[in-house]
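User: Need the bound-state model for adenosine-5'-diphosphate:
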Amino acid sequence: MQPAPSSLRVEDLATTNEAMARCLRLAALAAKSDVPVVLLGETGTGKTLLAHAIHNSSARAARPLVSFNASAMSDTLLESQLFGHERGAFTGAQQAVKGKFELANDGTLFLDEISEMSPLAQVKILRVLEYGEFERLGSERMLKSNARIICATNCSLRERVVQEKFREDLFHRLNGLTLLIPPLRERLEELPALIAAELKAAAKSEGKTITAIHPQAMERLISYPWPGNLRELSHTVRTMTLFCEGPVILPQHVVFPPDLAATPSRKDGNQAEPDATKTNSAHANSDLSLASAVARHVSLVYEQTSRNQRQAARLLGISRATLARHLRKLDQK
Ligand SMILES: Nc1ncnc2c1ncn2[C@@H]1O[C@H](COP(=O)(O)OP(=O)(O)O)[C@@H](O)[C@H]1O
Ligand SMILES: [Mg+2]
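Assistant: Bound-state model below.
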């Protein structure tokens, strides 16, 4: 189990995977300077964790790391969130509030999901990065922020620039050092150690004594593609700990999100009953077509967001209409 992100440092992170080792070497370098960092990785690969680690290993560690989810912010709230406001600046502004740039002064500003930022947010952030100055809403007093910027994105910002979804000038401002965090399926050699660490923590919190993982259970864990990466690994290990009643994790304790192609019971909302004789992924029915992979991924994300269409569409990077089309297709299976 990792220490809480609030205290974790880059030096605390270890890996046996070459690509991840390179990423951690760059993270250690990044911690020694104020260069802007882009953390590029799929959801659940550890971007937030690494942002905290870089901050905690940096000379700014005693100052706050302030997070801002750039995708979740409406344009109306944006400016007061970023720059703060004075009392009475707008209806309902009953007291003065500091914005993220002010709070992160001398510290780190972590801009999460940066590729999804609105054009307005891009302009506003660019201006502060260029001039190092901003005003609270309702004030003309210039404030300075020297916040160090760490961004996270699950898609290439360069591609977003090519698609004209991301400003090129902002891209160049942010793009100091890019750290590529490999997905879990490309770090398979690390899986046993990661599972063991998660299992130890989960067993402790459940008050269980689990001494082993059955080889077939391990096989199931290793052959799964882990689209939700470390976050999904953690949930899966917790679930299997819950199901496990003896000292050994058995294959039937390892349950993945139901695959619609294999389990027509999606609508009843039941997690598949643990059943060692059933495997639920396309590995099992060896349907390796792209269409089937897409369908699996859509359904997984949809289930992981507790069937929240808006959130699922955002995570998948598609419109709600496209998501609805995928879901209709799945329902027809
Ligand atoms: N190297 C790692 N070792 C163990 N757990 C990790 C590691 N990296 C991330 N995690 C865990 O995986 C989960 C997802 O990490 P997070 O940083 O939130 O991912 P992201 O921001 O990329 O979606 C968190 O619970 C985190 O503690
Ligand atoms: Mg995150």
